[in-house]
Amino acid sequence: MATDGHRGALYRVNAPHQHSRVTYAELFFDLVFVFAVTQISHTLLAHFTPSGVLQTTLLFLAVWWVWVFTSWITNWLNPEMTPVRILLFALMLGGLVLSTSIPQAFESRGLWFAIAYASMQVGKTVFLWVSTPTSQPLARMNAIRITAWLSMSSVFWIAGGFAEGQSRLLLWAVALGIEYISAAARFWIPKYGASQVTDWEVEGGHMAERFALFVIIALGESIIVTGATFAELTWTTETVGAFASSFVGALAMWWIYFHKGAEAGSEQISRARDPGRLARLAYTYMHMPIVAGIIITAVADELVLKHPGGHSDSKTVLSAIGGPLLFLLGTILFKQTVRGFLQLSHGAGIIALGILAWFAAELSPLVLSMLTTAIMVIVAVWESLSLKSGPVGPASTHSSA
């Protein structure tokens, strides 16, 4: 076992208001999740039934959680150190097994998915435990608590891998519930109690950048799906229109998240006295609907490109409306957390999408896509104009945005 001095080199004590840039090793690790996001969107497209949506949602939550935990750990550890880099490379291998198992996770490759997931979650947390020096007792105890929770959930993951059908879904839902509740419960364990959120010392700027990069991954996957699908089609007026609508919709999503929101989040978490609390709420939890919305929108884009004419079926309506709706819901909650007020532009967009849903089935997929894109563009322009000359932090009084 390494000495405390060596472990101290792996564990970085974050100074207030510093901003450690995301490293190349972390970016390399994230490439696996480009593939994972693509697998999720294709799985949803192939199994767009009530049971298929439920299963795909569970798989998305698992992929999101394994990435989130890795991001927290690389915030606490130094990815420039060789042992941490080797950890990331090992996690990449596990991530590839996890990703390739997604389409058959509820069929023949369930055990592979479960083993890969449990190994990644428990393995990296044990590494964090061993790498945290005894001179950081609160951080070390936090690593012990996390290991205990993830070890408990891994039992249900592996048991689900051996089970079949609804039993697998139930066991994995229990495992996922344990992990999601654990952070909210501050990793309480018998005798030692719960950790304090103030003990979760994170470097805010690094955390904000990591999550912004995952949004880029999801948007990039959306563009890849659009481009690959369009390349295989005959270029007609309808398919070109669907392609243009998909591309502009992706740009609008980028603008809504990055033009003001990402900057405000980075500034606020960098200044926060308890960045761990803000990181848990604004990033760990509230970014889930943002990323899910982008993935579902990518599914809608592929459906519209392949069948732009006729009436919109239930799959097209649910994905075309549900994707932007989830995205706006996530961004309005995220920005409310970091700014201190609700974005009127986002709320209006949510209402407009809800109204559009009432008669969406009467529209062609192309018209439906163009209308949802128009709503997203209006939201982006509205917010930009409203916040043009105002501050982006919680002190802002531009509640009309």
Question: Which key features would you list for this structure?
Answer:
401 residues, I/LWEQ domain, disordered C terminus, 14 helices, 2 domains, single chain, mainly alpha
Plain-language structure description:
This protein has 401 residues and is an all-alpha fold. The protein folds into two domains: 4-199, no CATH class; 204-386, I/LWEQ domain (Up-down Bundle), CATH 1.20.1410. It contains 14 helices and no strands. It has helices at 4-10, 24-46, 50-76, 82-101, 110-131, 137-162, 165-184, 204-231, 237-271, 275-285, 287-306, 314-339, 344-359, 365-386. Helix 4 (82-101) packs antiparallel against helix 5 (110-131), helix 9 runs antiparallel to helix 10 and helix 9 (237-271) packs antiparallel against helix 11.
